Amino acid sequence: MKNIKQRKKRRYTSTEEKGNVSLKKGAKIDINDLHEKLGHPAEEMVKLTGIYMKLSIRGKMDNCENCAIGKMRQKNVKKGPKEKSSKLGFCFHINIALSKFTSAGGSKYWFLAVDEATHVKCSLFLKQKNDVKEKFIPFLKEFQDTYGRHVHHIRCDNAGENQALENACIDKELGIVFEYTAP
Asked: 91-180: which CATH number, 3.60.10.10, 3.40.190.10, 3.30.420.150, 3.30.420.10?
């Protein structure tokens, strides 16, 4: 019982008093304090509410930092390249996904390559992520021999196996430019 009475008798600091000012009829209040108490409405709404509550509003409305933060917005960012390739095999998008199950051949990873122009997909199944360079480079060479097209760009995430693939392509002098997405 004593604890409850002690809590009720607690004295407020100056910042708590400011937050607990009563809005009695005829009370004098600064417009910026009322603006904050009412949840940051527009200046006209603060004045109309003050008149309705029969408050004596004083002062001039300042620029509210919290309102400015709430109205901020980020500059538009382009979602991707505007012009997509129209040439077969010019640019491939690649990605690796982990399968829930191991295949009969022991593969756990699914490698997907998508041609940007035609949206033709090629799937490779890998036992380890590091097998990308051993399986995809022969595919690129076969693609070049079959269709007579050289792959110029590969877009992928910044994963370690993709960087190893880039290094292997540099070693084999395939002349492919790797474009990494943001992490």
From this structure: 3.30.420.10
